[in-house]
């Protein structure tokens, strides 16, 4: 949906949340803060049966940390995470797909919101009315699924900085170096706010 001007009310005296209220109040506040939507993909390899397993997850915590001397990005993962395990098993290599405001982006994001990677990839591959393409490159350093089409703004090929990974309660903050950037489409990135995907 198109962005709208919020209803602004006359400011009142601030209310202070108690320690018991703080988690719920913070969750309510963050509902109204927009977040970029991205899909992280990775692959794990089993030497015993020579089988490759593909993983993906949708994140709303994608951010840049630094741009010089090389781009550094970060995102948060709730643990345990099979996608994070796959990234670590592949020497920290993975892909990030920054989504745009095309309607295909909503479908791509929804496919991986619950960690159902297998079903998500099958759903994208069976789409008949779209131009979503899923590839599984078996060459090169970064062996992770690549999703392209109208719903993908850019693809970042990344290498995790293991010494910068931080565990905070039940989440892990992943910090990684961008080694390659593929621009697929033009336009604005997809955002998530108030439990809905939105476009600028």
UniProtKB/TrEMBL annotation:
Keyword Plastid among UniProt keywords: no
The keyword Ion transport is assigned to this record: no
SMART domains registered for this protein in UniProt: Flavin_Reduct
GO molecular function, one term: FMN binding
A Pfam family that the UniProt record links to this protein: Flavin_Reduct
Keywords per UniProt: Oxidoreductase
All residue ranges annotated as the Flavin reductase like domain in the record: 30-199
This protein's name: Flavin reductase like domain-containing protein
Source organism of this protein record: Lepidopterella palustris CBS 459.81
Organism lineage: Eukaryota, Fungi, Dikarya, Ascomycota, Pezizomycotina
